[in-house]
Amino acid sequence: MYMVSVSLLVIYLSHLIYKFYTFNEIIVDLSDKNFDFKTRYKREDLPPHYPNGWFSVLESRDLGVNQIKPISAFGVDLVVYRELAGKVHVVDAYCPHLGANLGIGGRVVGDSVRCPFHGWTFNGAVRIKVWECVEENGFIFVWHHSDHQKPDWFPIPIPDIRDSRLVYRGRAEHHVNCHFQEIPENGADVQHLNELHEGPEFLGTVVNRSMFYDFVVKYLRYDWTATWESCPAPDPHMAHLDLRSVYSLLGFPLMPITLDVLQIGPAIVHLKINCKLLGDINGYIIQTITPLAPLRNRIVHHFYTEPTFKAFIFSKFMIYGEARMVERDVVIWNHKKFLKQPYFAKHETPLVRFRRWFTQFYTEKCPKVEDW
């Protein structure tokens, strides 16, 4: 009996070690599939729901050579395909001949896509819209502009990722019911950090805040400081956030973390991370936001660290911790209302500056509430 118990314990511990070693993904969908924006908003309450800029429509790892996939983004159905040479193309989903969806049964032929219905092939030279796209940092981005303007800025490559000095550790994905602007605006909302994100990740979200939660944060907590600024010319489409956090026990700092955050357009964020834990641990978090439909968005995070064992262990906690912290925001976003004219406090000038900065991504022809 003793040997059986020991064997079961060894098997259980081996399973836990295996799960910890292989854990690299969290997917959370807290959105309401039956959400009706009309019950929360009047027609005049919202800015346009799709800003102009580069948006991630697919992750590079999900598209193989000679593979084609149907996707939806910013209210449009598209197909993404990769030719034999590796180049990615994005075109309208529906065949201009008789409307078949090219992503359902279509095939890649050379640099073109062949319709499954009548065998017509398209690469943009004949009566089908080609969307400008780039592949960078593990994502496929598409340029969306309601006024059909050409891009005057592009996603930025991260040299440490491109040259494999940092290795991919995993991803997190969240789905959210809120206006698109709520999500990037969160970075400039410095004041919410020490209210919503003071408690350790294992305490859950704000909706289950309890006496135990309040007891724990007296002794074990995060303390945050942040500074948000828009970038001057020639990069007015970018903004910078200097974010610092200290994880402390009984007031003693255990793990200072510095995040050098670069917001690139409305939907791309690079977070360069440095953690002081038995020396330095360096890495990157890449965040992309994709508007799928009005008030329905997908947030994806990719995690990279140095190729060391210490950084590997840290990455597991980084993936889990970041995902749980984002969930706290998601719970708020899913149930809050975007206010075009909120009552800002005097110390909330970063939010005022952010809203002024973000208006550059809206133009007259951006789809508005009355277009829903």
Protein topology:
Elements: H1 2-22, E1 25-29, E2 53-59, E3 68-73, E4 76-82, E5 88-92, E6 107-109, E7 112-114, E8 121-122, E9 130-131, E10 133-136, E11 139-144, H2 159-162, E12 167-176, H3 182-188, H4 193-196, H5 211-217, E13 220-230, E14 238-249, E15 252-264, E16 268-276, E17 280-293, E18 296-305, H6 309-335, H7 349-358
Parallel strand pairs: 1-12
Antiparallel strand pairs: 2-11, 3-4, 4-5, 5-9, 6-7, 7-8, 10-11, 12-18, 13-14, 14-15, 15-16, 16-17, 17-18
Structural features:
372 residues, alpha+beta, Naphthalene 1,2-dioxygenase Alpha Subunit, Chain A, domain 1, Rieske Iron-sulfur Protein, 2 domains, eight-stranded mixed β-sheet, four-stranded antiparallel β-sheet, 7 helices, globular, KshA-like_C, metal ion binding, membrane
